Amino acid sequence: MPLVRVDIHRNPDPTFAKRVGEHIYAALRSCIDVPEHDNFQILTEHDAQHFVYDPQYLGIQRSDGVVFIQITISEGRSVEKKQLLFKTIAESLHTHLAVRLEDVFINLMEVKKENWSFGNGIAQYVI
Predict the structure, then answer these.
(1) Terminus of the chain with fewer CB atoms < 10 Å: N or C?
(2) Rounded-to-integer distance, Cα 4 and Cα 71, Å
(3) CB-based contacts of 77: which residues, under 8 Å, 6+ apart?
(4) Distance from the Cα of residue 87 to its chain's centroid
């Protein structure tokens, strides 16, 4: 049920954004029990004038390698599961793709299950 949006600076590696998405999906599966095949992502690359961020907000030193991740999920996960998800995503991107931990920016949005339609104009999660 997650919808993942990833925004990055244009990357010379054409596979980079997709690989970021793969690591996010693996973390969603392992940390918050997202089922197999429940993988919906929008991966977007931007030029410098369309990619704005503060390089030191909250004392975190960000670079042009910042990765913005917005995840919309159904509500109900514990704070501990969300914290594990954030940590797992950041560490996976750092370990496998050399993304600096400081450059992993995650926004989690929770919605009620009735707010999803996966096709056919039907709210599949409404019982």
Answers:
(1) C
(2) 5
(3) 32, 85, 110
(4) 12
Q: Are 110 and 44 in contact (CB under 8 A)?
A: no
Which residues carry out catalysis? 2
pTM of the model: 0.94
Q: Which phi and psi angles does 45 have, rounded to 5°? A: -110, 145
Q: Hey, what CATH class is 2-115 in?
A: alpha beta
Q: What is the dihedral of CA 77, 60, 65, 27, to 10 degrees?
A: -20
* Helix orientation angle between 79-97 and 16-32, rounded to the nearest 10 degrees: 150
Residue 41, beta-bridge partner list: 4
80 sits in which H/E element: helix 79-97
Give me the residue spans of the domains in the chain: 2-115
- Name the pLDDT band for 14 (thresholds 50, 70, 90): very high
Residue in 44, 30, 39 with CA at minimum distance from that of residue 91: 30
Structure-block tokens of residue 29: 């599966």
Q: Count of CB atoms within 10 A of residue 117's CB? A: 12
